[in-house]
Specification:
Largest sheet: 4 strands, antiparallel
Radius of gyration: 41 Å
Number of strands: 6
CATH superfamily: Outer membrane efflux proteins (OEP)
Structural class: alpha+beta
CATH topology: Outer membrane efflux proteins (OEP)
Distance between the termini: 86 Å
Order of helices and strands: HEHHEHEHHEHHEEHH
Number of helices: 10
CATH architecture: Up-down Bundle
Helix content: 55-70%
CATH class: Mainly Alpha
Strand order of the largest sheet: 2-3-5-6
Strand content: 5-15%
């Protein structure tokens, strides 16, 4: 080994030894300090919360911002303008054709150019022609273009329905994260009070050092729950901001609202009827049938041949004359039979698509109805007494433990049961609110009967 490499290795070993020595010294000092105080070291508190949010947003405002700033939706809306531009094209009339010619000019014999030659020998023709569309083609083209615009508009409305549902789901997730964070902070504050009382009891000799260590270790679990809740809130707000739009909300913002249970009447037939009237995807399928029928009418109109009419003026051999010309294809072989047949089959396809869309709407409403009714029953189970029982059990066990009438394990078990019940209730309310949003999406409107 080279001398430089050896010296480098020696330096590294000496640095490692110094780090280990400092670490061991700190550990020994910490242990000595704990023994001198006669009690174990407390777990450090969770770092203070971040700065207050710069803005708050409600659910209605979040939906409004998403409809204004979602780039995918804005791109879809541009297709409506494109179809309206196609309506202009469909309504245009054919342009007239202006033609003219000069014949028998003595270009290669310039010496013959004279007024007499031009008047008696040369020929001049000027004409104008126009295509007369038969079968009301322009009207059918315009009607077909308008039908396609209506289909596109309904499709974009369905995209808005999906976006609104996604924003509502993310918003409810943020509300749940807020509620869980609030519960975690309350539980931590309450248990820190229990730890302080337990430390006083330990100093008085009422409990053992082992019981105090178990309580302090349980405090670590509460602190970890708080950290997890803070992380879940950050993730929920980031996901919501992605749907609403990064330019619409500042990075430091918060949602305004709370998890609330809002009972609704369970009238499945009314919701089905409303969905059949309101769902934009079903409206798009219905308009698709109308559009297919318009394409069929246009194909039949295209089967009728147009007439080309022309009016010409001629000057030849010193005489002027006019002529009228008419030109039309004879529809013997090509009568647009293939396109007529195709569009007729397309009507059947559109009708089947409409039927499938209607069945999908009814299926979505039925599924959302069952989910909403089940989640409603779960929320009512919690509010019927389980929440109060869990809280009373926790309070009684806490008081009994502080008075020395209950064991530590009984108190910790009651504390875990209370926390699990509260978390379960908040999750049940959030699930119910999500089911309600699913019903709004299935019906196609946010105004439920």
């Amino acid at each position: 080994m080279e001398p430089n490499s050896s010296r480098t290795a020696d330096l590294r070993m000496s640095r490692y030894a110094a780090v280990w020595a400092v670490t061991l010294t700190l550990l020994l000092a910490s242990a000595a300090s704990g023994q001198s105080q006669g009690q174990p070291q407390s777990i450090p508190a969770v770092p203070p919360a971040a700065a207050p949010p710069a803005a708050h947003v409600t659910l209605d405002r979040a939906i409004e911002l998403a409809l204004q700033h979602d780039h995918t939706l804005l791109a879809a809306r541009s297709t409506i303008d494109q179809n309206k531009a196609s309506e202009i094209t469909a309504n245009l009339r054919p342009n007239p054709v202006l033609s003219g010619d000069a014949e028998f000019l003595p270009i290669f014999q310039p010496s013959q150019f004279s007024n007499s030659y031009i008047n008696s020998i040369a020929e001049f023709d000027v004409g104008i022609s126009y295509t007369i569309e038969r079968g009301k083609k322009r009207q059918h083209r315009l009607e077909a273009a308008r039908d396609q615009t209506a289909v596109t508009t309904a499709t974009v409305s369905d995209n808005e329905r999906t976006l609104i549902a996604n924003v509502a789901q993310q918003f409810i997730g943020a509300l749940l994260a807020n509620a869980n964070l609030e519960l975690a902070q309350m539980d931590l504050d309450s248990f820190q009070n229990t730890v302080q009382i337990s430390e006083s009891r330990y100093q008085a000799g009422d409990i053992s050092q082992g019981d105090l260590l178990k309580i302090q270790l349980q405090l670590l679990q509460f602190q970890m729950d708080l950290s997890a809740a803070q992380l879940a809130k950050v993730e929920a707000l980031a996901a919501l901001r992605q749907f609403v739009g990064f330019e619409a909300l500042p990075e430091n913002y918060d949602v305004d609202g709370a998890l609330t249970y809002q009972g609704v009447p369970f009238q499945l037939d009314d919701w089905k009827a409303l969905a059949l009237r309101s769902r934009p995807d079903l409206q798009a399928a219905t308009l698709g049938v109308t559009s297919a029928q318009g394409q069929y009418s246009l194909a039949k109109a295209d089967g009728k041949r147009d007439v080309d009419a022309a009016l010409n003026y001629s000057h030849v051999s010193g005489a002027s004359s006019a002529s009228v010309l008419l030109d039309m294809q004879l529809p013997i072989f090509d009568r647009n039979q293939g396109e007529i047949a195709r569009t007729r089959f397309a009507i059947n396809q559109a009708q089947e698509t409409q039927s499938a869309a209607a069945e999908q709407v009814l299926t979505d409403v039925t599924s959302a109805f069952e989910n909403l009714r089940t989640d409603d029953q779960i929320v009512k189970l919690y509010t019927s007494g389980y929440l109060k029982e869990a809280e009373d059990s926790r309070d009684i066990s806490n008081y009994a433990y502080q008075q020395g009438a209950a064991s530590l394990l009984d108190f910790l078990d009651a504390e875990r049961s209370y926390r699990a019940t509260e978390l379960g209730y908040r999750q049940a309310v959030a699930t119910y609110m999500l089911a309600l949003e699913q019903m709004r999406q299935a019906v196609g409107t946010r105004s439920l009967p």
